[in-house]
Amino acid sequence: MAAAAGSGFDGDVPIFHAENLVSNIKSINYSRTFLSIISGVVAGIWGFTGLKGFVFYFLVMMVASLGLLAKAKFSVHTYFDSWNRIVIEGVLGGLMVSLIEAVKN
Fold it and tell me: Which parts pass through the membrane (predicted)?
């Protein structure tokens, strides 16, 4: 991940580099899409349907969020403009991918 926030003067609003921020958000979306496919396949193989499938998907996304936080060294505002980018960015979009993969299996 590239640092999205630049160093400014004390008391100033942090400066965000748009290219780095967009690159970081793309990385989140790609990783969540990949994990959605994998979790859908695993949920289908293990027979997780209905509520169990939803819970499994959200557990995988929670672990992914923790992994992204660890990769950012728990310094979210250095790489992203808000916590929402790591916690909920792409979770609902990936849910559809996961459901499709679970239905296929």
Answer: 30-48, 54-74
Q: Specify the pTM.
A: 0.71
Which of 23, 7, 5 lies closest to 76, judged by CA? Answer: 5
Q: What's the rounded mean pLDDT across residues 21-45?
A: 87
Q: Say which residues have a Cβ less than 8 Å from residue 23's Cβ, sequence separation at least 6.
A: 1, 2
pLDDT at 59: 92
25 φ, ψ (degrees, to nearest 5): -65, -40
Q: What are phi and psi of 97, to 5 degrees?
A: -65, -45
Q: Using one digit for the tens of pLDDT, what is the confidence trace for 53-96?
A: 888 988 998 998 898 888 888 887 787 787 777 777 777 777 77
Q: What is the distance of C-alpha 11 from the center of its chain?
A: 30
104 Cβ neighbours under 8 A, 6+ residues apart = 40, 44
Residue with tokens 């859908």: 40
In whole angstroms, give the CA distance from residue 18 to residue 105: 40
